[in-house]
Automatic annotation (TrEMBL):
Highest rank taxon of the organism: Bacteria
Coiled-coil ranges (or none): none
Name of the molecule in the record: ABC-type sugar transport system permease subunit
Primary location recorded for the protein, binned into one broad class: membrane
Organism: Paenibacillus eucommiae
């Protein structure tokens, strides 16, 4: 068999292993993206796709000309990102530092910390809705110690804060284990050398540990930005966009415009615009946090 035939055979065998994934990616990612791009240039109803009318860039022009209508969802999403990313990463790092040493005790905590990850967002949202309700356990505890009850779902800011708490509780676990893997990959010799040189606990963390897990921090921050940019289910379960649409995100607003108002072209155009915005933020984060040093 010629060398060329052997190379072609090896190439075909290699691609056969990734073919199932590529097929699913094409069906559930690439094809929907192409459809969204096509729909963004049309006007019509989801109930009658055959009557869709090609209108060019009119949908994008409508979005930008009526930007004040969509601004609330955009600002709410930015607020979610601004709150959840720093607090979520801080909680994840704190938990990771607590359980980074391998021991039987930490193995138990790892199991406990893993629990929110395997609980569905629906179940978690229902639990939080009960705990934060007007007559729920949290308000009962606050009144017991002499503090006033909090109307979590009657105030727009408190409603957004409740969504942030749910997202941090649900997502911090995932990022914790990424940080744990990164921390356990740091050779112990670095810590020993720092102690010999007289470094304090804080100096060791700030000057040695954090720089050595910078790539893990970058990964988690970018992933959190992408996840929170798509925030929907926690809002739908906890607040349904209320009160007075005060907790709506961009994705929730797109859902309302596309499915409830039946303006699929506008919704598709908004999706592409916001996708470009999230991509821009992610690129800025990668450029800012990227480390050229490999440890």
């Amino acid at each position: 068999m010629s060398t060329m035939k052997v190379k072609w055979k090896q190439t075909l065998v290699s691609y056969s292993f990734v073919l199932p994934y590529l097929s699913l990616a094409a069906l559930f990612s690439i094809l929907p993206m192409i459809l969204i791009v096509c729909l963004s240039f049309t006007q019509g109803s989801l109930l009658n796709l055959k009557a869709m009318e090609w209108i060019g860039f009119d949908n994008f022009l409508k979005v930008f000309s009526n930007a004040n209508i969509y601004l609330r969802g955009f600002l709410n999403t930015l607020l979610y990102i601004a709150i959840i990313i720093p607090l979520g990463q801080f909680v994840s790092l704190l938990l990771a530092f607590l359980i980074r040493r391998k021991s039987r005790t930490n193995a138990v905590f790892e199991t406990v910390f893993f629990m929110p990850l395997i609980i569905s967002m629906v179940a978690g949202g229902v639990i939080f809705a009960y705990v934060l309700s007007q007559n729920g356990p949290l308000n009962y505890l606050l009144m017991t110690i002499g503090l006033p009850a909090v109307d979590w779902f009657g105030n727009p800011f408190m409603a957004k804060l409740a969504v942030c708490i749910l997202e941090i509780w649900k997502g911090a676990t995932f990022f914790t284990f990424i940080y744990v893997a990164a921390l356990r990959g740091i050779p112990s010799e670095y810590s020993d050398a720092a102690k010999i040189d007289g470094c304090s606990w804080w100096q060791e963390i700030w000057r040695i540990t954090l720089p050595m897990i910078k790539n893990a921090i970058l990964l988690n921050v970018v992933m959190t930005t992408i996840f929170i940019g798509q925030i929907f289910d926690s809002i739908f379960i906890l607040t349904n966009g209320g009160p007075v649409r005060g907790s709506e995100s961009v994705v929730f607003f797109i859902y309302r415009v596309t499915l409830l108002d039946d303006r699929i072209g506008i919704g598709a155009a908004m999706s592409l615009i916001f996708m470009a915005f999230i991509l821009l933020i992610s690129l800025i984060q990668m450029r800012t946090l990227r480390s050229d040093t490999e440890y």
